Amino acid sequence: MNGNNFRMPARRCATAVAATALAAGPVALAGAHSAHATDEGHASAVVLRTGLDVALLDKTVHVPLAATLNEVQAPHSARRTALSVEVEGVDGDRPVDVLRADVAEARATVREGKAEASTRLAHARLHVPGLPLLSLVEVEGVSSKAVCETGKTPVAASRVIGSVTVLGKRVSVSAGGPTDVKVPGVGEVRLGLSKRETTSRTAAATALELTVSVDPLKLNVAEVTGTVTLARATCETPAAREASAGPTPSDAAPAADIKAQGAPAGSDLAATGGSSATPYVVGGAVALLVLGGGAVTLARRRS
Fold first, then answer.
1. Exposed site from 73, 81, 142, 231, fewest CB < 10 Å?
2. What is the pLDDT of residues 168-217, one digit of tens each?
3. Which residue would you say has higher pLDDT here, 94 or 81?
4. Angle at Cα 175 formed by Cα 185 and Cα 54, nearest 5°?
């Protein structure tokens, strides 16, 4: 009875130890090399963004006018096509139609290896508080596009189609520098056209950027200052994805880092034709021999 109770645990122990010794090497080596997720990239587009300050009551009260129209972000594809934006609380009890357009579209898309953003605006009028009948700027058409693709140089482009009117004056804008428009008794606007920026991984394009300083001399509205951006698109290139790969002799950790317990420090396994997995195979074989010998001894004693 005692012999049977002792023999079964011994066999189970031998099997478990041998399996653990043989499995330890492959598991440790597999953990030494694994693929990981990389940056998916980014894209954004906006038709209109304002950063204006409205000074009321002889400049004793300042109200921010921060409005956006059709602002989208990706890694997930996005599209918006609203045609107007309205704000309240900056011109007494009257809401202000900041922008109205016939076409106002923004798109942002990130696919595998490519991030892309675009925006376009057509037949648009932009207003600020205190100037209900006079547009700050009118445009026939503007557009911007940014494309960032893995392995390629990022591209940024913008266009102004047709005429641009600022504070009632038709102006000729140039990509060579800003255009200043001054209207006595109303204010002044500095207009920048087709701003483009690129780096090794990013691109940004803005069709029109306005620096505004308007004093319409209306009751309860003293001054409007700040910036207005029309048709902006940006992107960031997705990082290259690494293909999953199994362990190879060159990928495996050095023998000095992963070795069987008791292996002499600095032993050169490669000189004997072994690899970094050799310690585990040897360790497993030794375990099997030792436990097998023990089983034979127990069998002889029993007999």
1. 81
2. 999 887 666 788 999 888 889 999 988 999 999 999 999 999 999 988 76
3. 81
4. 35
